Amino acid sequence: MADVRAYRAALVHCLDDPAKAGEEAVVWHPDGLLLVEDGHVADCGDWTALSPHLAADTPVEHLPGRILTPGFVDTHIHFPQIDMIAAFSGQLLDWLEEKTFPAERVFADRAHADDAARAFLDELLRNGTTTAMVFGSVHRASVDALFEAALARNMRLIAGKSLMDHGPEGLADTAASSRAETESLIADWSRRGRLGYAVTPRFALSSSREQLAAAGEILHAHGHVWLQTHLAESPQEVAQVAEAFRESKDYLDVYDQFGLVTDRSVFAHCIHMTPRSLDRMAEAGAAIAHCPTSNLFLGSGLFDLAEADRHGVKTALGTDVGAGTSFSMLTTAAAACNVAQMHGSPLDPLRAFYLATLGGARALGLEDRIGSFAAGREADFVALDPAATPLLARRLYGVRDIREILFALMVLGDDRVVTRTWLAGRSAHSRD
Ligand code: GUN
Ligand code: ZN
Fold it and tell me: Separation of 376 CA from ligand 2 center, angstroms?
């Protein structure tokens, strides 16, 4: 017997990028019906049109005052930084040395990693994030802990062990050990449940050429794994990379020389890019994880989304916790709107919502599985309360326009507006 459940509430989701397809790409049903069958979306539309066709025995859950959206997709976040978010320091390289590396050392301990993994997944779900692409620490135990916890919740999660043979004392692997551990993690976890593996060279400054070459070989040996790393985040980092890799045309080219620029590659930040490297990313089908709260926190710079668009590069959003200052993809979307304002090219809130949902799915090549309410997608979704705070209740009183509603939810909302989160049709978090 199929497990069929219906939800009656307002619904919003994207069928395409509104910047390309126009605002009709954003589908809004003020009184909608979401039909879920065996953990997948079976149908989605207006309540009045669809409800007469419901089988008499289909349970209908009515969620008055709630807006259902696809679960958020966070394309860049660091698991071992959960306990050092909001750590005051200087810019990127100082922050890494002073605050980040010491915090990551404790993830050698499996018991610590298990405890942090529970808290990390709880925090994602409290914020309505149902898929994330995640950096582990250099220790395989951190990745084992995270995957085990995500598998138990049937959560869609892509993660990998950080490769860093040029890492600091006590936090460095070797090219040989990282190759063996990555291969073994792929064998143990990739494609189990909804898990995926990402080969994870931390950034160009943390890896030897030998390690980057091994990363490229592993990526090409397994067509089902991803690549995640950092690219052109801070001016000091870019200068040091140019010094260390004199043979490369630019920072992207360092990765390209080792076969790391593919349509399964996600590069965080991409603030200080050459036009050539943006063209090359577009050609390869690689994606950018734009992490605006992190970029402001570390003073890294202002990512230019309009420029990435002009070069035809896919962009999505990442929180980049712990340099990012919030787990909330709503808050992250609002920060992306603020950064776009600084370039004089405003980001339409409908598109910011797209970037946090279907845009993230596309960056990960998972748009056939997640990111919208199109029939057949996995039923990862959230319920938002547009009156979750007194100020939101006043601001949105009587407002019917979905662009205005979403923008206020981004600017004024965060985890407080997420009342429930479902994973593959099952309730995984509830504050109702
Ligand atoms: N570059 C290399 N490692 C990191 C990290 O942990 N966070 C950020 N924001 N950038 C990095
Ligand atoms: Zn990062």
Answer: 32
